[in-house]
Specification:
The chain is mainly beta. It contains two helices and four strands, in the order αββαββ. About 15% of the residues lie in helices and about 35% in strands.
C-alpha cells in the first residue's frame, strides 16, 4: 500500500452484545497505526452514550487485506480508572 492508501483506509473495531447488535465502535487510521507508536489507546463511544477505551500493542511488519472475527474476547472492567 502507498502512503496515500494508508491514509484513506481504516482499522474498524466493533463491539457487539450477545445478540450481535453493535454497541460500540471505533475507526483507526492505518497510517497512524503504521507510523507508531507501538502502544495504541482509543476512546470508544457506546450506543448508550457511555465512554470506554480500547488499547492494544500493534507492530505492522507487512500490510495485507484481512478480516479478523473474534469468537471470544477477554474484557476487563476497572472500577477505578487509573488515569
Amino acid at each position: 500500500m502507498t502512503e496515500y492508501e494508508l491514509r484513506k483506509n481504516f482499522l474498524e473495531v466493533t463491539i457487539r452484545n450477545e445478540n450481535k447488535k453493535i454497541v460500540g465502535k471505533v475507526s483507526i487510521n492505518l497510517f497512524l497505526i503504521t507510523t507508531g507508536p507501538f502502544h495504541q489507546d482509543f476512546e470508544l463511544v457506546f450506543a448508550n452514550g457511555k465512554i470506554g477505551r480500547i488499547s492494544f500493542d500493534l507492530k505492522i511488519s507487512q500490510i495485507i487485506s484481512v478480516t479478523i472475527k473474534s469468537i471470544f474476547a477477554d474484557i476487563f472492567l476497572l472500577k477505578d480508572h487509573p488515569g
